[in-house]
Amino acid sequence: MSLVNLHQVHKYYGDLHVLKGIDLDIKAGEVVSIIGKSGSGKSTLLRCINGLEEYQQGGITVDGNEVTTEDIQVRRLALSVGMIFQNFNLFPHMTVGENIMLAPTIVLKKSKAEAEEIARAMLLKVGLEEKFDSYPEKLSGGQQQRVAIARALAMSPKVLLCDEITSALDPELVGEVLKVLEQLAKEGMTLVLVTHEMNFARDVGSKVVFMHQGKVWEEGDSKTLLSDPQTDELKQFIGAVL
Ligand code: ADP
Ligand code: MG
Ranges for the ABC transporter domain (predicted)? Predict the structure, then answer.
């Protein structure tokens, strides 16, 4: 049973043909790493799955629900897609706890007590239970990104999309964020990650998708694909990042 399915998805920005017939099937519990050069369409692909971008042809379903561009709020809620970005995007004027409680309160209509319980449980999951009352600026980049993960998890997403979430971090902070993702993967969370972390893709990921010029150029089991790339383009890419 597929959790996320893309069928012949085409996306244009004006005349620019950015996604050129993407077929992709992701099953519950899979950890899919999307790799490829800058400009190959990775972020656009995630944004289409999350309903943040329109696409012009083809179809996308998440958990059997079609992703259309109408009625965004209702659709997002129904689809349960969480997304985390490179730059955390926490609200600076709110505490960590308030950041996490916001969507459960407003979107899911949870009571304050319920939302707080969820927020504390999610902070525990990312190892930051003592930061409930802190403001984001008091936290390191790695801690802020872990709060962003907790905030996404508070909405009980079926799939978590991560767009280069360790790319803005100092190297010594990358590991703590990857460790949280690894734990989520172990718990069975479906993850779709645009990442440059090849070790993570190989060791934790189940599948790797290599994008090139708006197409899925090569895809397969993460260990096989990265150790035995078939196309010259993927060989070159692996040579450049390792
Ligand atoms: P990646 O994440 O792989 O670096 P993107 O999905 O961000 O690639 O971009 C794919 C292509 O689409 C690039 O040529 C980029 O310049 C273009 N693009 C991305 N976002 C927009 C936008 N909002 N408007 C116009 N062009 C865009
Ligand atoms: Mg990108």
Answer: 4-238
Q: What ipTM does the predicted assembly reach?
A: 0.98
The one-character DSSP state at 155 is T
Ligand 1 atom with the smallest distance to the CA of 38 is 4
Ligand 1 atom nearest the C-alpha of 164 is 2
39 alpha carbon – ligand 1 mean position (Å): 6
Is the Cβ atom of 43 under 6 angstroms away from ligand 1? yes
Q: Which atom in ligand 1 lies closest to the alpha carbon of residue 47? A: 6
DSSP 3-state of 55: coil
Which range marks the domain in which residue 151 is found? 84-157
The domain tally of the chain equals 1
pLDDT tens string, the chain, 242 residues long: the values are 899 999 999 999 999 999 999 999 999 999 999 999 999 999 999 999 998 889 999 999 999 888 876 665 556 556 689 999 998 889 999 999 999 999 999 988 999 999 999 999 999 999 999 999 999 999 999 999 999 999 999 999 999 999 999 999 999 999 999 999 999 999 999 999 999 999 999 999 999 999 999 999 999 999 999 999 999 999 999 988 86
Those residues whose beta carbon sits under 5 angstroms from the ion ligand 2 are 42-43
d(CA 166, CA 197): 9
Whether 182 is in a domain gets the answer no
- pTM for the whole thing? 0.94
Beta bridge partners of 35: 210
Specify if 118 maps to a domain. Answer: yes
Rounded Cα–Cα distance for residues 191 and 30 (Å): 6
Name the residue at shortest CA distance from atom 11 of ligand 1.
39
46 assigned to some structural domain: no
